Each structure stands twice: as structure tokens, then as C-alpha cells.
Amino acid sequence: MNELNYDYVENFLYENIKRKSDFLESLEKEALENHVPIISPDVGQFLKFLIASKKPKKILEIGTAVGYSGLLMLSGSEQIEKFVTIELNETTANIAKENFKKAGEDSRVQVIIGDGLEQIKKLDEDFDLVFIDAAKAHYQEYFNEIKRLIKPGSLIVCDNVLYKAMVTTDDLLVRRKKTIVKRLRAFIDEVINLEDFESSLIPMGDGLLVAVRIK
Ligand code: SAH
Ligand code: MG
């Protein structure tokens, strides 16, 4: 449990999502068994909702893991022309590549192996939606660099920003997570107050921050 909601609320939200393909179901099951920190079911459903409303052609993801969130976003979204995803761990990235291939999605997917920030810096194309789900201590740096790649109307979605609710209260904060939590708090404060973005903090999954560029 993510400590953000009552268990009965969370369970209800997790159960009330659209049925997924057998492939996604088995990928989800396998990821959970292997303790891969994939997006929670409600976050997955919300991403699908955002994609259906915004109809992005190009998506950038930081933190591929085994490709679960990527495949979920791609499934049923034919208008996505290009999905670029960055993963630091080479072994994990190769598993993701296999999964994209198995799902028949490899032609519109580009998996980049490397550090998120370093790789974002090398990109020079516009994205309509960016999903940040990698090293929490570096969200601010990712965000600052991503600004260069998005136009007004584009979205940035950040996962795990409330980090087991530790970001919301020191009562839950464990000492070894102090630096990450401090950075996440500063990140949230900064993004919420940006002049050229309108943002919303949602207690969904492990905490979601959604930002739209307005100018
Ligand atoms: N988005 C995936 C889960 C990502 S878990 C899903 O929901 O299915 C976070 C991933 O970020 C891990 O696979 C981890 O290896 C990767 N990661 C951690 N630090 C990173 C960095 N600095 N750059 C890129 N990826 C990173
Ligand atoms: Mg996450």
C-alpha cells in the first residue's frame, strides 16, 4: 500500500479500471512478482484517459523498467507515432525491448539505454506528453531539461511524487530518505508555482503531479 489513501479506497480504485490485454495482464503480474515498481492500476488508467483526451503523437518516458507503462500507454492508442523511453539499467532495458517486440510495438518505440538527464539533454525534438518515472531525486533536473522539448498544450506527468506519503508528513519520513523527500518537496513547490505551467497534485498511486504548459 502507498500510505496515501485508506486501503478500501485504494482497492476500489485499483479494481475499477478497464480490462487489459492478456499480454499486459501477464506482464503486470510478472513485474509485481519480481518487485519491479510499475505504475499502479489507477495511474495506468489515468494515463490512458489523458492520452485519449490529448491524443499525443509523440511521448517521452523516463524510467522504462520492463516496458509495462509504455505498453499500457501504447495499447489502443494508434495515433501515437513515436514513443521514446529512457532506462538506466541495461538488463532491464533489454527485457523492455523484448516486451515491446513481443507486443508488436517495436516499430514506434525507441528504447534509449542511459541516464535520464544525460539522455534528455541529447534529445532535440518536441514531445506532446512526457512521463517521468525514474530517479526521484532528479525530477527537478529532468523537468528543467524537458521544458526545452515541449510546447504550450503539452503535458508532463510525474509519478511517485508523494513517495509513500513521506513527502506529506515528517511522521512517516525515514532518515535515509530525507534527501529525496526534501528534493521532492522543493520540486513540487517549484512546479506548482511556475508561471508557464498549470499543475495539479493528485493522491493517486504513489502521488502524481500533472503539469500542462500554458505559455
Ligand atoms: N515506468 C515503469 C516503471 C519505472 S521504475 C512502469 O511503470 O512500468 C523506475 C525505473 O527507472 C527503473 O527501471 C530504474 O532502473 C530506472 N532509473 C533509475 N534511475 C534512472 C536514471 N537516472 N535514468 C534513467 N532511468 C533510471
Ligand atoms: Mg512509478
Question: Can you give a write-up of this model?
Answer:
The chain has a domain at 7-153: Rossmann fold, CATH 3.40.50.150. Strands 3-2-1-4-5-7-6 form a seven-stranded mixed sheet, sandwiched between helices. The chain starts with 6 loop residues before the first helix and ends with a strand. It contains eight helices and seven strands. 40% of the residues lie in helices and 17% in strands. α6 (116-122) runs parallel beside α7 (139-146). The radius of gyration is 16 Å and the shape is globular. The longest helix is centred in the last third of the chain and has 15 residues, at 178-192. Bound molecules: S-adenosyl-L-homocysteine (SAH) and magnesium ion. Residues 37, 39, 133, 159-160 line the site of magnesium ion.
